[in-house]
Each structure stands twice: as C-alpha cells, then as structure tokens.
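From the pipeline queue, job 12 of 40. The input is one protein chain; the requested action is below.

Action: predict structure.
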Amino acid sequence: MANLLYITCNVRPQHRSRTLSLGYEFLEEYLRRHPQDEVQILDLYRDSIQRIDQDVFSAWERTERGENHALLLSEEERRKMSRIWRLADQFGRCDKCVFVTHSFNLWFPAEFKMYIDTISVPGLTYRLTHQGAQGALPVRSRKSLHLHADLPFVFGPEQDLSAAYLRSMLNFLGVAEQETVHLKGDDPEQGLKKEDEAARRRLLELARDF
C-alpha cells in the first residue's frame, strides 16, 4: 500500500478551475486503479499553514546550532512548530505527491510558498553540512505529479519560474521521479478544449501507473 498526498492551491471553486477539475478526474481514476492506497488531501487555502515568523525562525536557528530546542520552546512557539512538524512529517512519509496549482504574477500564490517553507525544515527534511544543505529524508523511491496552469498571457520577456522552482525543491528533498502537466490559463471559459482533452488523456494515463 502506497501513501499519496494530494495538494491543491487554488482559491477558485472546482467548477471555475481547469486544474482543480482535471486534478479531480485524475484523483478519481487513481483511486479506481489503486483502491488499496492511502490518500491524504491538503487544500492550502482551507487548511492551516503556519507561516515562517520570528518564533519559527528562532526555533530553526536553535536547531542549526544543535540545541534541543523542543525543551526550550514557549507555548506559542511549540504550537506553531507542532503544525510545521506535522506537515513536514506528512510530506516525508508520502510515497507520491500531487500538486495542483496555478501561476499568479509569474509565480505561485503566497500560500504555496508558505507550504514549501513548512516542509523544508532543518534537522527534519534537510540537514546542514560542511558542503551545504542536503536532503535528509529516508532514501526510497518517491514520485510526484505537478498539474499547473501557466498564465494565459505574457509579462513581456519575463519567464514564469514557478514550475521550475518546484522541480528544484522536490529534487533537493529526494523526489527523483517527476511529471509535469501544463495548461495555459486556469479559467475554463478561456481554456482550449483541445488542450483540456490532451491534458485529460495524459493525466488518466499517469493515474494508471502512478
């Protein structure tokens, strides 16, 4: 039995979002093909994501210095760090992760960056060495799928680096096998039916062997 973590970051309702609609079709097909697997769903707009603030940063600094910070935390620091540890542990335990996202001003919405920060925890998902930061998750086969809606228009010559950023972070954290499916725009009224069908076929194909 595998553990799949399904993560969405989109403020639109499902019927107003191409990525959420297609992602749901993928999830349905995946569950049909892999009924024995455990699936956890995380909505970054609905669920509580702890932002990195002064309390969290202070706790991280203690970790980097090798202190047993768990014994020194205030009640407020412990509350915040507990949420971060739970999310980082959830990510670390999953065998497969699916990200359903869209671009906003050439990058992800702020909630997505907050999530990446909460799963990138010194002493838990990565460690600092003399050679620099290194991923610290147990070595095993991990895979990911990223369904992403790029912006439907260009910002002059500037590039949207959101998908490339996620790929780099997942590589660092030990997710070697990655798939990305792109759409141009997230609004169903602006999307091309031909593009939707191509993405749907690819996602259903991936669901079979993911």
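Job complete. The helical segments are 18-33, 54-64, 75-93, 110-119, 162-173, 193-209.
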